[in-house]
């Protein structure tokens, strides 16, 4: 009887350890994805393609959508969108907030993240300033232990703060 109880206790402890391990694993994965999103923010704001090349999976058929336009492939995104903005804009300020991360499948090797966005900037040539808000979605796959963005989609419109009604 003692062996039976001991076996059950050992089994219960191992299940509890595994469950705790999954939570730690999930937190580690969430942190890794948040770090990727923060590095992408840095890349956009500084016209730096390195965070994109490090964190995006470059594959045939890759497409990245930004407010109605799309870049086919990582080189197109970096060379025709991210890096040229460094010279075209006096400044670019990007904020991601309300980030939600969802994991899919038993292996949790696929994730998607959605974030509210706010982007402000000033165009060098015209001096025009813009202030837009919207949402960004990132689709990610875990490859060889590292998360990689396989698709992103951003959509925004002119920022219009919600009116507060006074009674």
Commentary on this structure:
The protein has 167 residues and is an alpha+beta fold. It has one domain: Nuclear Transport Factor 2, Chain: A (Roll). The protein is 40% helix and 40% strand. It has three helices and six strands. Strands 2-1-6-5-4-3 form a six-stranded mixed beta sheet, with helices on one face. Strand 5 (129-143) and strand 6 form a beta hairpin. Helix 1 (2-46) packs across helix 3. The N and C termini lie far apart (72 Å). The relative contact order is 0.15.
Short description:
The chain is α+β, with helices and mostly antiparallel strands.
Comma- or semicolon-separated keywords:
single chain; 167 residues; alpha+beta; Nuclear Transport Factor 2, Chain: A; 6-stranded mixed beta sheet; 3 helices; 6 strands; 40% helix; globular; NTF2-like_dom_sf
List the helices and strands and how they pair.
Elements: H1 2-46, H2 50-55, E1 63-66, E2 69-72, H3 74-88, E3 89-104, E4 110-123, E5 129-143, E6 146-158
Parallel strand pairs: 1-6
Antiparallel strand pairs: 1-2, 3-4, 4-5, 5-6
The number of distinct structural domains comes to 1
Rg, Å, rounded = 21 Å
Query: Looking at the structure, what is the overall shape?
Result: globular
Strand arrangement, largest sheet? 2-1-6-5-4-3
Summed over residues and divided by their number, the pLDDT gives a mean of 87
